[in-house]
Fold this protein.
Amino acid sequence: MSKDSSRYIFIFIFLATIVVGLWYGSTVYMASIYASLGDRGVAGDQFGAINALFSGLAFAGLITTLLLQRKELEMQREELKLTREEHKGAKKQLENQNESLSKQNFERTFFDMLRLHHTIVDGLRFGKTENQREGRVVFNILCNNFTSIYTRNTSNKNLNIDILKSSYNTFFESNGWQIGHYFRNLYRIVKYIDEQKISNKDFYIGILRAQLSSNELFLLFYNGASDLGEKKFKPLIEKYSLLENITLTKIEHPHVELRFYKKSAFGDDNVDQYFS
């Protein structure tokens, strides 16, 4: 109990003691000097001022009670304020813990998907047993195969997106068993990052982008522009600049072909000359 509350209680008890003492004393006094009740009534009328005093004291007691109640209400409001602040701090701490846990879960899944990406790359095979090529070097062979088809289809023709799509479809019919799984997994990694409620998505996209060789980016360029990637993968390629590190010299007609994408797919400052 606070000092102010104790003081108010002391004042109230003191006043109440005086009132009770005066009442009891006057009763005893009147009984001792007046034998009959009538005489006591007449004498009592002479003490009207005392009644007024008692009423005043009662009013003072009421004021004291109200002051005590006001003080208690102020203390309760202060306690509620402190309680709300404690709850707010606890809520913030819980949010931080949940955010940290969510980030840990995200990173665990992200790096597991990256490991799967490398496993898929390492599992690529091309050619017969005695001359078989394995792993990332297979992308070099696949790039040459696509370039051969694409060059043949664009010979003596005006290059356009339909020729690109037709060429990639022909290429994928023969090589899809090799790279279909690769591009589906790569798309899932980018989509997984995109769906997360994290503030630094570009950081993880940068980690993923660093895993892609120039030949992988070359095929990604045509896969994203083809019928297979145009609707789902291409918007993510443009959103996160997945082709930022592509070797432009590998593209035969960059002034035409790069326009099949938004400039953001390559990093806005890297390809200005091709979009001017």
